[in-house]
Each structure stands twice: as C-alpha cells, then as structure tokens.
Specification:
It contains eleven helices and eight strands. The chain has helices at about 1-5, 10-20, 45-50, 55-60, 75-80, 100-105, 130-150, 155-165, 175-185, 205-225, 245-260, and strands at about 20-25, 30, 65-70, 70-75, 90-95, 105, 110-115, 115-125. The protein is globular, with a radius of gyration of 20 Å. It is an alpha/beta fold and about 280 residues long. The chain has two domains: about 1-130, no CATH class; about 155-260, no CATH class.
C-alpha cells in the first residue's frame, strides 16, 4: 500500500488527520478535505446540510464522523493498475485532489474505522447538484442510525399495517424485496401490489419483518431529512423496476418520523401535493 500512497492517495487515517474539523449546531461531527467545488463548496453550506439531522438522531450517531472529500475509492477498483497493484481489494483510499481518471474509479462513499470513530467519506466531486450530494449524505446518516438503533415501535407498527393491507409500492428496491420476504410472498418481477389483505400473522419470520421495518425506516428518515434540505419531486427517488410507495402512505410515514424526531430550529418540514391539471 505504500506505493499507492506515493501517488497522492491517502489512507483513511491520514485523510482524517489532514481534514478540517467542525461540528454543526446539532452536534454532528463532520469535516472537509481538499478542494470540493460543486454544490456544497463552502463550510457554511455544509454546516447547513449537516445541521438538518434532528438532535434526537444525532444522539444515535455519536461514533460517526462525516468527511466530505473530493473522491473516495475502493482498492478493488484500482487493481489492475500497475501503479496501485499492491492495494488490497478491501482498502479504502482517499483522493485529496480531483482527477478525471480517478473519478472514473471512485464510488459515492466509503466507510472506514479511524481510531474509535466510524468515518464516512463522501465523494463530493462525484455529485454535480445539490440534490445528489444531499441525498447521498442523508441516506448514509439514515442507514448509520438504523445500524445502531432499532426503528421506533410506532413507525414499525405503521409500516407493517400498511404492508398487510396491501398498500401499493415501496420506498426503495431493498424495502420492496424485504417486504416481500416479510410477507412470505415470492417476488415475480415487480407486481403493482402485494396480495391483500393478509393476516397480521402473515407468513415470514420475525427477522424478515424486522429487516423490512428497518429498511423502510431508513428510507423514510432519509427522505424526511432530504425534504428539509432541498425541494424535490418524490418521483425522482424511484430507482430500478419497482412501484414507488403511494404518496398518502409515504406522507403517513414522514409525519410519523417528524413526530418522533422534530425538525431542528431553522428547518421546516412540509409535504406539498401536486395539483392535477
């Protein structure tokens, strides 16, 4: 790995040590390294982005730090390049300077343990608009929170009730697949709805239901955070081939998240429905 570092790439520890250190008003730790440019190039813009995380969620993220870097890379993507042939496939490397060649091999984020801190390196230069980088940050925060905290029972009860009554669609392909597993219904393509209604004691084991509730909560928390950061159209969140969760059902989930984790001062949560022409 020493040869790789001579090319200008940094280890996670070196990148963390050379980065700036800051904290948003909500207490969430973050920092920057190198020249970011792009939609969140200034410290004040990043503070505004990081500050969207409700104080109650920040309490569950004490072991995390978020670093906005030009590019984060996986050693697996660099194998085959003679200059980096000594890198192990699971190595994380950080580029403090942007280059087109490295951008082609970079990924949206990489996690690495630095001391007692789980550090999330976000590739800021891969995102050329506010929506993209904000969503990358929000979805990481949401998944990090769920990794160490069980979804609130109130939220879990809501999504399970929606599932067993056959509410259309889901918030991500992962939630769609986890929901099918939790209901004991094999996936055949992407049907418009699940079979409904089903018993509260629907087929599928407790672990599958727990996984589904966790995935649905992470999605909803990320969308909730994003909604207070940028204006966006819900339809823009659809990925791959699955039906997006019906808007009224999503609104129920988001209002529940808002009730559990109220917005910080200076941030506003609002759902607007598009008028039909």
């Amino acid at each position: 790995m020493a040869e790789a570092l001579q090319t200008g790439l940094l280890s996670p520890r070196d990148a963390a040590e050379q980065s700036s250190r800051a904290a948003a008003p909500n207490g969430l730790r973050f920092g920057t390294l190198g020249r970011l440019d792009g939609p969140y190039a200034s410290l004040s813009e990043l503070q505004r982005l990081v500050g969207v995380v409700p104080a109650g969620v920040v309490l569950g993220l004490q072991r995390y730090r978020y670093l906005f870097v030009p590019l984060a890379l996986s050693g697996a993507r660099l194998l085959g390049d003679d200059a980096h042939s000594v890198i192990a496939p699971d190595d994380t490397l950080i580029a403090p300077l942007y280059s087109t060649a490295l951008a082609e091999k970079a990924i949206c984020h990489r996690n690495a343990q630095v001391g007692d801190t789980e550090t999330v390196f976000l590739s800021s230069r891969l995102h050329n608009d506010r929506f993209a980088l904000a969503f990358e940050f929000c979805i990481n925060v949401a998944h990090n929170f769920v990794d160490g905290n069980s979804p609130p029972a109130e939220f879990g009860d809501l999504v399970w009730q929606q599932a067993v009554t056959g509410v259309r669609g889901e918030t991500s392909i992962d939630a769609w697949e986890d929901r099918a597993a939790a209901l004991g219904q094999p996936l055949r393509g992407a049907p418009a709805t699940f079979t409904a209604p089903v018993s509260q004691a629907a087929p599928g084991d407790e672990r599958a239901r727990a996984d589904y509730k966790a995935t649905a909560f992470a999605d909803s928390l990320a969308i909730y955070l994003l909604s207070m950061t940028v204006d966006f159209d819900y339809a823009d969140l659809r990925e791959r081939e699955y039906p997006l969760l019906a808007a009224p059902a999503l609104a129920e989930r988001l209002r529940t998240v808002h009730r559990l984790y109220p917005a910080n001062d200076g941030y506003q949560f609002q759902i607007l429905y598009r008028r039909r022409s």
